[in-house]
Amino acid sequence: MKIKEVADLVGISVRTLHHYDEIGLLPPEEITESGYRLYSEENIEMLQQILFFKELGFSLKEIKKIISSSSFNRQEALILQRKMLVEKRKRLDKMIVTIDKTIKSGRGEIEMTNEEKFEGINFQDNPYEQEARERWGDSYVDTADKKLRKMSQDEQTDLSERWDMILNKLADLREQPPESREVQETIKEWYEFLNHNFSSYSPDMFYGLGQLYIDDERFTKNIDKHGKGLAEFMSEAMKIFAVNQK
């Protein structure tokens, strides 16, 4: 698509797209000899990500850092963005109710306490915002790499064996309900294993990781080596575990 077509599709200016290109946030797939900027489907998908993050209050500098991270995953980003937008919607709904009450109060129809005047006005961070900032920061990958580099060959072998052991154990439990006690205890082992050896996963991030097991065919293929349908089974069990932690 040409730059004007993209601008019209999204509802932003051509100047904005020029700016995104200039700062290295969204370079077009190709610039023709005549100087036309051509945008691919991948460019369009990345633009969607940029605008979602922008709506959620991230600066262009922060967005560039996030989407340039080697650990960035579009599907995982969408899951977290949805949570952030739902949280934002809840706050806005509360503020609208407070405004309606305030209008009635100004007409003398009702009385409001000082506490009621500020319901929904919350300047605390969206609980998922810091998670998004940390999830795709350099520290996520660096921490895991440093841990692996510090391990001896024997330690790396032990880690691999532990990995296989838990997945094989879960594969043997596939016929049980994912909410069963034994399955949940084993999923807890997986949660603690990942947190101890690779990075720090909150329950919500663990939930999102489980979704990736079925959304990303690379995850699915690797996990299903231990048993057909294991990725889908683990995904459901991980979601149940994450919800139960709240």
Can you characterise this structure?
The protein folds into three domains: 3-68, Multidrug-efflux Transporter Regulator, Chain: A, Domain 2 (Orthogonal Bundle), CATH 1.10.1660.10; 74-132, Multidrug-efflux Transporter Regulator, Chain: A, Domain 2 (Orthogonal Bundle); 137-244, Antibiotic binding domain of TipA-like multidrug resistance regulators (Globin-like, Orthogonal Bundle). 69% of the residues lie in helices and 2% in strands. The protein has helices at 3-10, 14-22, 41-55, 60-68, 74-106, 114-117, 129-135, 138-150, 153-172, 181-197, 203-215, 217-223, 230-244, and strands at 30-31, 37-38. A two-stranded antiparallel ribbon has the order 1-2. The mean pLDDT is 84.
**Name of the CATH homologous superfamily of the largest domain:** Antibiotic binding domain of TipA-like multidrug resistance regulators
The shape, in one word, is flat
Q: On the 0-100 scale, what is the average pLDDT?
A: 84
Could you tell me the radius of gyration in angstroms?
23 Å
| Helix content percent band | 55-70%
Poorly predicted sequence stretches spanning 5 or more consecutive residues: none
The third-level CATH topology of the largest domain is Globin-like
Order of helices and strands: HHEEHHHHHHHHHHH
Tell me the structural class.
Answer: mainly alpha
By DSSP, the count of extended strands is: 2
What spatial order of strands do you see in the largest sheet?
A: 1-2
Instruction: Return the CATH architecture of the largest domain.
Output: Orthogonal Bundle
Q: What oligomeric state is this? A: single chain
Strand content: under 5%
Domain unit count:
3
- Largest sheet entry: 2 strands, antiparallel
Measure the end-to-end span.
45 Å
Q: What is the CATH first-level class name of the largest domain? A: Mainly Alpha
